[in-house]
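Re: that backbone. C-alpha cells:
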C-alpha cells in the first residue's frame, strides 16, 4: 500500500541544492543559503552562537519576545549586550539605532527582528541597515514572520545573517528553515573559537561539509517531507507571483485594522501606527474590561477554522491576533474574523457595527 508521506524516493543533493537556490532567489541574495533541518529557532540560535563570543559587543533590538531570546543567547555566549527595547506596540526607528551607536561606538553586532507575528509590528530594516553598514557591524535579522508577507532583501539591506522559516506567510511546514550567510559572517564564524562545530547548531559544519564541497554530498539525511513542503510552498509563491502574494498580505492587514476600528465595541489596533503594523498578522487590543482569551474562544466557537489567537504569555489577556499566514490572507478570512469577533463582543453586551466593519474592511482592501 502506498502512502503519500511514506516510501518516498530519497531526496538527493541536487534537489536539495535546487531548493536552496530557490530560497536565494526569493531573498534576492548572492550569499550562501543553508537550509537548516529544523524549526527556525535552529538557525536563529546557530547564527548567534556561531558569530558571538566574549569579544562581541552587541546591540540587541527588542520589539517583541524573540528579541528578548536573542539577548539571552548573546549573553550566554559571553557577549556584551546593549538592549534597545521599544514598546511592543511600536517599531524601532533608524534614529534610535543611530543613537545607540553614538553611545556605544564599539558595537560590532546588531540583532533585529523584522516582523513579529507575536506582537504584529514590523521594523524599517532598510533604513536600519544603512546605519549598521555605516558602522561596519555584523547585521543579524529574523525574517521568519516577514518572508512571503513583505519584501525581505538581505543583500540590498546589508544583512549578513538572514533567517527565514516556512510556517508563517509561506504557508509551509514548521520543521525547516533557512539562513543566508555573507562572506563576512562566515569569516567571523571561522575566527570564533566558541562557534559550534560537529553540532546540530553548527552552520560551519554545513559550510565545510556541504558548501565548500560544491554541494555534491549531503552531510546527513535531509528532513525529506519538510524539504518537499518547502519546495512546494516556494513553487506556489513563484506561480502566484511574490508581489501579488505580498500585496494580498498587506491588504489583509489593512482591511483587518480598518474593520476592527469600524466594528467598535472598544476594539482597537494593538500597534498604534499603521506604518508599524506587520502584513503577516494584525494584533488587536481587547476592549477595557474584557479578556482577550475569552473573546477569542467565543469567536472560535462560531468558526474554529479562523486564524485567531490570543496573545502569548503576558499578552494573553489584552491581545487578540488575527494571522494572515499565506492562504489565510484573503477577504473571506478577514470578513469571517471580523464577524466572529463582532459576535463575541455582542455576546458581552458591547454595541458593535458589523456592517460598518464589513464595509471598512472592503474599502481598505481595495485601497
Ligand atoms: C514565528 C516566529 C518565529 C518562529 O518560531 P515559532 O514560534 O516556533 O513559530 C521566529 N521569529 C519570529 C519573529 C516569529 O514570528
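Recovered sequence:
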Amino acid at each position: 500500500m502506498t502512502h503519500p508521506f511514506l516510501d518516498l524516493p530519497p531526496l538527493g543533493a541536487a534537489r536539495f541544492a535546487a531548493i536552496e537556490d530557490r530560497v536565494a532567489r526569493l531573498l534576492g541574495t548572492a550569499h550562501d543559503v543553508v537550509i537548516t533541518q529544523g524549526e527556525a529557532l535552529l538557525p536563529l540560535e546557530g547564527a548567534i552562537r556561531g558569530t558571538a563570543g566574549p569579544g562581541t559587543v552587541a546591540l540587541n533590538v527588542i520589539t517583541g519576545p524573540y528579541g528578548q531570546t536573542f539577548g539571552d543567547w548573546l549573553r550566554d555566549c559571553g557577549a556584551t549586550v546593549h538592549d534597545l527595547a521599544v514598546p511592543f506596540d511600536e517599531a524601532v526607528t533608524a534614529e534610535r539605532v543611530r543613537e545607540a551607536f553614538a553611545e556605544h561606538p564599539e558595537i560590532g553586532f546588531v540583532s533585529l527582528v523584522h516582523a513579529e507575528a507575536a506582537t504584529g509590528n514590523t521594523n524599517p530594516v532598510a533604513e536600519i541597515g544603512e546605519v549598521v553598514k555605516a558602522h561596519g557591524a555584523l547585521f543579524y535579522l529574523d525574517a521568519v514572520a516577514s518572508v512571503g508577507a513583505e519584501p525581505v532583501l538581505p543583500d540590498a539591506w546589508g544583512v549578513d545573517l538572514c533567517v527565514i522559516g516556512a510556517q508563517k506567510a509561506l504557508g509551509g511546514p514548521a520543521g525547516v528553515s533557512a539562513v543566508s550567510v555573507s562572506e563576512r559572517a562566515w569569516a567571523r564564524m571561522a575566527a570564533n573559537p566558541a562557534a559550534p562545530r560537529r553540532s546540530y547548531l553548527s552552520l560551519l559544519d554545513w559550510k565545510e561539509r556541504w558548501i565548500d564541497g560544491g554541494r555534491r554530498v549531503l552531510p546527513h539525511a535531509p528532513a525529506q517531507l519538510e524539504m518537499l513542503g518547502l519546495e512546494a510552498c516556494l513553487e506556489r509563491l513563484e506561480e502566484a507571483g511574490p508581489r501579488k502574494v505580498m500585496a494580498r498580505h498587506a491588504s489583509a492587514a489593512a482591511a483587518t485594522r480598518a474593520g476592527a476600528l469600524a466594528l467598535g465595541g472598544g476594539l482597537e489596533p494593538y500597534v498604534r501606527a499603521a506604518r508599524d503594523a506587520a502584513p503577516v498578522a494584525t494584533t488587536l487590543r481587547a476592549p477595557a474590561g474584557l479578556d482577550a482569551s475569552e473573546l477569542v474562544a467565543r469567536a472560535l466557537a462560531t468558526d474554529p477554522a479562523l486564524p485567531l489567537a490570543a496573545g502569548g504569555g503576558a499578552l494573553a489577556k489584552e491581545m487578540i491576533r488575527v494571522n494572515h499566514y499565506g492562504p489565510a490572507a484573503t477577504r473571506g478570512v478577514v470578513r469571517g474574523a471580523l464577524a466572529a469577533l463582532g459576535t463575541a463582543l455582542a455576546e458581552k453586551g458591547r454595541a458593535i457595527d458589523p456592517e460598518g466593519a464589513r464595509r471598512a474592511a472592503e474599502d481598505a482592501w481595495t485601497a
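The radius of gyration is 21 Å. The domain at 13-240 is CATH 3.40.640.10 (Aspartate Aminotransferase; domain 2).
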